[in-house]
Amino acid sequence: MADNEWNKEQIIEIISRNLEQNLHDIDGKAVSPTSSMRDYGANSLDIIEVVSASMRELEIRVPRSELTQVENIEELADKFLEYL
Amino acid sequence: MKPEDILKFSLADFSYNDSSHVLKPPEDFNLWADDPRIGLAMSFFEQPLNGAPTARTRLYHRPTGQRRQMINLTSYNYLGLSTHPEVVEAAKEALETYGVGASGAAMLSGTFDQHEAFARELAQFKGRDGCMLFPSGYTGNLGAIQALMQRGDVLVIDEKCHRSVVDGVQLSGARLATFRHNDAQSLDEMLSRHQDARRMVVVEGVYSMDGDLADLPAILEVCEAHDVALYVDEAHSTLLFGENGKGVAEHFGLDGKVGVDFGTLSKSFGGIGGFICADEGIIRYMKCYASPFQFSCALPPPIVAAMRKSLEVATRDSSLRDALWKNVEHFRSNLQALNLDLGQSDSQVIPIIIGSSVEKLIQFAMEAQQRGLYLQPVDFPAVEADARRFRISVSAQLTEDDIDEACNIIEDVIAKPMGLV
């Protein structure tokens, strides 16, 4: 799939799946886009891994300095879209 | 990575190596690091000092390729003990007696009479019955946490704790949980969330990038309510805070209530090493399971002898820390008069917060160092992206003239260009 074919819903799915894989005890399909990863018990190391894995899947590199103000999963997806 | 985005990237962005060969850095990293603007920023790293870390030191200024004499606002030599004549003499004498290195790990052949005596003296100083030494501060936190925690446990730490704490919990296999900086309510929520696990809480006495103190009374109250042990990293506070210099716990009158008291020998002590003070029973256990203790060579005996003298000099009266706090007060009031953002600092670590601009940070750093001020820039991810800064380490060694001259330079190269004065 070409980079620019990803839509926001798919990006949220990718982030949610990676969150599930890192935290094990949550259901990725039940993740709310308006929640923060911390709401599901993610720590700073989990968040770094979820963001990294999602960026690798999307084949993008978003500066971490741009992510510090991101409050929830939907905002993260929006930020990823800017770099696709 | 687009060329126009290069300055948005930082060291936080390249830890994952996507190249096919382990010995090849990521292509994007090379592209980023080869950019002259990034090269200039990185040239501030590892500038070699050509002399002792005294108030005025000589160093090779890499950005300009010149050797310069500078007012030293960066070394951790808070009390000047690194070059104190009695400390240096103690090291020399031990060097003659014991040689350079310990030639072994502590458990086998690396423990000398100096190590035993120093551990006893540190325990006595901290009012504990047990103490163990580590080869560095980093390995002290790493080893203690790795030995204390295990898979299934949860280590709950302030979000601003040092990397050594994070690395220690990763090595232990325990789960990491962070609470909002100095926020007792956030700590309470996090402890409640993990109430079924064995837990320990870690905070720092003085936070190294902000210079603020742990809100120990509130944090300890929450720990006691949950019956959870508190580990306090007093790396930047030992020998400085409290009536006897024991640290921030003593400053708050809570030193008898801390579970584990960690300190370094590389800051106020002026040498290198780390130490843990706690109950003898848990120290005996940790010595058997803390890998950096078991599998590193013990501290060099001349260093241990010097550190014993540092402890003696710093605690026989309060003159050194009195001199430090006088300097801190003078420095802080001068900086406040320049309307600079000093964050919440309440210690000898005073940040000057510039904001989000990398360009300004590097430009100010270059001008300050060209004017003879050894003041290092601190960039994201070491600090928040919108709070890039300089960090002043005030030392008792500085004279009032040194501080006044430093503040004049800071006024010219930082406060005036920022429109603050």
Question: How do the helices and strands line up, and which of them pair or pack?
Answer:
The complex is a heterodimer of chains A (84) and B (421).
Chain A: H1 8-23, H2 44-58, H3 73-82
Helix pairs in contact in A: 1-2, 1-3
Chain B: H1 27-33, H2 36-42, E1 56-61, E2 66-72, H3 85-98, H4 106-110, H5 113-126, E3 130-134, H6 137-148, E4 154-158, H7 163-172, E5 175-179, H8 184-193, E6 199-204, H9 216-226, E7 229-233, H10 248-251, E8 260-264, E9 274-278, H11 280-289, H12 291-295, H13 301-315, H14 319-337, E10 349-355, H15 358-370, E11 373-374, E12 377-378, E13 388-393, H16 400-415
Helix pairs in contact in B: 3-13, 5-13, 6-7, 6-11, 8-9, 14-16, 15-16
Helix content class of chain B: 40-55%
**How would you spell out the order of helices and strands of chain A?**
HHH
CATH topology of chain A: Non-ribosomal Peptide Synthetase Peptidyl Carrier Protein, Chain A
Q: Compute the CA-based radius of gyration of chain B.
A: 22 Å
Structural overview:
The complex is a heterodimer of chains A (84) and B (421). Chain A has one domain: Non-ribosomal Peptide Synthetase Peptidyl Carrier Protein, Chain A, CATH 1.10.1200.10. Chain A is 49% helix and 0% strand. Chain A has helices spanning 8-23, 44-58, 73-82. The mean pLDDT of chain A is 90. Chain B is an alpha/beta fold. Chain B has helices at residues 27-33, 36-42, 85-98, 106-110, 113-126, 137-148, 163-172, 184-193, 216-226, 248-251, 280-289, 291-295, 301-315, 319-337, 358-370, 400-415; strands spanning 56-61, 66-72, 130-134, 154-158, 175-179, 199-204, 229-233, 260-264, 274-278, 349-355, 373-374, 377-378, 388-393. In chain B, the strands form three sheets. Chain B has a seven-stranded mixed sheet, sandwiched between helices. Chain B is globular. The chains are: A mainly alpha (84), B alpha/beta (421). The A-B interface holds A 41, 43-45, 52, 56, 61, 63-66, 68-69 and B 1, 5, 8-10, 12-13, 16, 18, 28, 159, 166, 170, 175-178, 193, 380-381, 384-386.
